[in-house]
Please model this.
Amino acid sequence: MLLTLQRLVVALTLTSSVSAVQPSAQAPKLSLDAYPPEIRKDLARPYENVRLHPDDPNAVGSLARVLHAWEQWETAHEVYTRAISLAPTSFDWHYLDACALDRLARPQDAVAHLRDALKIRPEYVAARVRLADALLSAGQLGESRTIFAALAS
Model:
């Protein structure tokens, strides 16, 4: 009985470890033909890399960066979300997603990602400035003022 219980514990541990590693979302699917030729040209290689390596956060994040550079804010946000699901402790994906969310006029969501980014790299001044600005946009004047004052001193 004890041996069976130990096997059950080991099996449950292995099952939960495997499910924790498996990504929670699908690889992003883009219709490259929907983009103008100059964007399509820049997206082709990173998109193919994601298709080959859908669970690689760097590949997914690189695709998001190209979309971001071409001001494809909503799609960039969706792809950053995928990168975050693959690498939740990556500063870059939280910070860059916050930048995209700011462009989408979603300051509350940007605040959440900036807070996550600053938990990872609290010394990054640009993220603190963006957080204060996003808080201001979200109508959280007191906290925004406090952060701006701390940055000024």
The longest helix spans residues 2-21. The chain has eight helices and no strands.
